[in-house]
């Protein structure tokens, strides 16, 4: 597929999806929506990809929705979006919404936030599994200052990342949040100087790609996203069931063998 508003690249088992409208601070468009979803599906299905990095070109990650597109937005567009085909029929329906399909991807998704992250851009950052940001990044939910509500599942996702009180603050005020505050409240996992963000993010991604079992990562990710819908007993039963599968898998045997032989593992994801 020829992409119009993103770049897609695979190197060293890492797929990079780059929002590519730098002249508009990567403002979100329907074309970008289509491109990102297709690229995510492609990376999820590619056995040569172990980790996915989502970032932006230029000086922003994503400054929110393209205002030209937003001005002409048909309210029925929201209803039509609910009929999108499922991202992955093997995953729970909670992760089949318009943008909330990232948890269905059985691979780590790292948001490399290289600048302004606002509105729908923040929504996508929250759906990433991890968020590494430049230390000059500014965040805002933006919605309430545009007469909009907490959209696309952010009312569910944000409190689980930063807590209920912080989520209320960020959503109701839509104020600008510095990178230091974002780190303090858990909105991001790590901060780096802008000139080190890419190097440090890819070092982390390569470590996952080279030294961590893909099958273990897929199960761990599913477990953590399923937990909000489970009791402790259900989570434990699920873990016991998955442990039996893991103990029978080749990745477990390789993990033990590589440790005993003091060599890098050669995981296959089996």
Strand-helix topology:
Blueprint lengths: L5 E6 L2 E6 L10 H16 L5 E6 L3 E3 L4 H5 L4 H6 L27 E5 L2 E3 L1 H8 L2 E5 L3 E3 L13 H9 L1 H10 L3 E2 H6 L5 E3 L1 H18 L2 H13 L5 H16 L2 H11 L10
Parallel strand pairs: 2-3, 3-5, 4-6, 5-7, 6-8, 7-10
Antiparallel strand pairs: 1-2, 8-9
Keywords for this structure?
270 residues; 2-enoyl-CoA Hydratase, Chain A, domain 1; 2 domains; six-stranded mixed β-sheet; four-stranded mixed β-sheet; globular
Summarize the structure.
With about 270 residues, this protein is an alpha/beta fold. Helix content is about 45%, strand content about 15%.
Task: Characterize the structure shown.
The protein is α/β, with parallel strands linked by helices and 270 residues long. The chain has 2 domains: 6-208, Alpha-Beta Complex (2-enoyl-CoA Hydratase, Chain A, domain 1), CATH 3.90.226; 212-260, no CATH class. 44% of the residues lie in helices and 16% in strands. The chain has helices at residues 30-45, 67-71, 76-81, 120-127, 154-162, 164-173, 179-184, 194-211, 214-226, 232-247, 250-260, and strands spanning 6-11, 14-19, 51-56, 60-62, 109-113, 116-118, 130-134, 138-140, 177-178, 190-192. The strands form 2 sheets. The protein has a 6-stranded mixed sheet, with helices on both faces. Strands 4-6-8-9 form a 4-stranded mixed sheet. Helix 5 (154-162) packs across helix 6 and helix 9 packs antiparallel against helix 10. It is globular and about 55 Å long. It starts with 5 loop residues before the first strand and ends in a 10-residue tail after the last helix. GO terms for molecular function: enoyl-CoA hydratase activity. It comes from Bradyrhizobium sediminis. InterPro entries: ClpP/crotonase-like_dom_sf, Enoyl-CoA_hydra/iso, Enoyl-CoA_hydra_C. Its EC number is 4.2.1.17. This is Enoyl-CoA hydratase.
